[in-house]
Amino acid sequence: MAPPDTVFDLSAFLAQMHAGHAGLLGVEYRAHGPDWTELALPYQAALIGDPERGVLASGPILALMDTACSIAVFLKLGVERSHATLDLRIDYVRPATPGKTVIGRGECYRTTRAISFVRGIAHDGDSADPIANVAGTFMFTDL
Amino acid sequence: MDDLPYAHALGVRPVEGDPTLLTLPFADGVVGRPGFLHGGAIGGFLEVAAIVALRHALAIESDARIKPINLTVDFMRGGRDKPTFARGIVTRLGTRVANVDATAWQDDPARPIAAARMNYLIVRA
Predict the structure, then answer these.
(1) CB-CB contact of A30 with B41 (8 Å)
(2) Residues in contact with A132: Cβ distance below 8 Å, sequence separation at least 6, in sequence order
(3) Chain B residues inside the 8 Å CB shell of A48
(4) A41-84 per-position pLDDT tens digit
(5) Do A21 and B33 touch (CB under 8 A)?
(6) CATH of the domain at A82
(7) HSE toward the beta carbon, residue B125, CA cutoff 13 A
(8) pLDDT at residue B3, as a whole number
(9) d(CA B100, CA B67)
(10) Tell me: the pLDDT tens digits for A119-138?
(11) Tell me, what's the pLDDT at A107?
(12) Cα angle for residues A38, A39, A44 (degrees, 5° grid)
């Protein structure tokens, strides 16, 4: 039987974001609600994918959205159930503006016994003018 | 790939003698939950593999630019603390759009840890 769930501790989760892949990307916390979170990806030259134009690569935006959506799952549940990304679909609506911080908002709109459904957008200041649109699922790994 | 700062930051390296095969050493910068690769790092690695494959396919027209349109990644197994490999395959190279598949594995190419399909816009000079 799975051990009893512990309450999700957002600040503890955020405290370890300075390490690992989120640390490499420089991902920062911005805001959260009952089923969503907003993270920031500050512009840095090391993450460029198009050197001629200075545009960020798409990979860091994918990682930002994966992380934001995963935190949204924890927030929606309120407990720390381990989960893994099952699939993630991302539409790159337009290139990120060079020099600007990318903001990623992930939302968990539904959880079931085995699966969580997420969606999100990335933008660089105006959420009505997104950089990327995301939809995905996470599966719980404690079943 | 040398001109892709992001690929360098991730730690992606080419595999000698095979122009579309890449490797990603396990390092702190690609870790998600302890002992496992971050899904975003795996996805980013697959995108690099796709771009390398597409550039290879476009080699004769080096002035063509490619822009990502979309990406769908399936995560099949956790990425453990060992080297990961990835390869992109261009399934269709059109005049305006390319379809690319990419797969990542660790011990056995037949047991992928993740696979992605991507559409790229090709902008010819």
Answers:
(1) no
(2) A58, A61, A65, A90, A91, A92, A93, A121, A122
(3) 4-6
(4) 999 999 999 888 999 999 999 999 999 999 999 999 999 999 99
(5) no
(6) 3.10.129.10
(7) 6
(8) 83
(9) 12
(10) 999 999 999 999 999 999 99
(11) 98
(12) 150
- Interface-testing mutation among A13, A88, A93, with chain B (most B C-beta atoms within 10 A): A88
The number of distinct structural domains making up chain A is 1
The closest of B28, B125, B17, B33 to B75, measured between CA atoms, is: B33
Q: What superfamily does domain B5-123 belong to in CATH?
A: Hotdog Thioesterase (3.10.129.10)
Give the position of tokens 């134009």: A53
Shortest Cα distance, chain B CAs vs residue A30, angstroms: 19
Asked whether the beta carbons of B41 and B104 are under 8 A apart, the reply is: no
Those residues whose C-beta lies under 8 Å from the C-beta of residue A28, and which sit 6 or more positions away, are: A17, A39, A40, A41, A42
B16 Cβ neighbours under 8 A, 6+ residues apart = none
Does residue A2 lie within any of the structural domains?
no
Q: A92 and B71: CB-CB below 8 Å?
A: yes
> Domain range for residue A81?
10-140
- Please indicate whether, in this complex, the C-beta atoms of B74 and A87 are within 8 angstroms of each other: yes
Buried b (16+ CB within 10 A) or exposed e, B3-28: ebbbbebbbbeeeeeeebbbebebee
pTM: 0.95
Tokens of B102: 């990419």
| A122 Cβ contact partners less than 8 Å away, ≥ 6 residues apart | A61, A64, A65, A96, A102, A103, A104, A105, A130, A131, A132, A134
Q: Which two tokens stand for residue B124?
A: 């010819």
Do the bridges between strand B13-15 and strand B18-24 make them parallel or antiparallel, or are there none, so unpaired? antiparallel
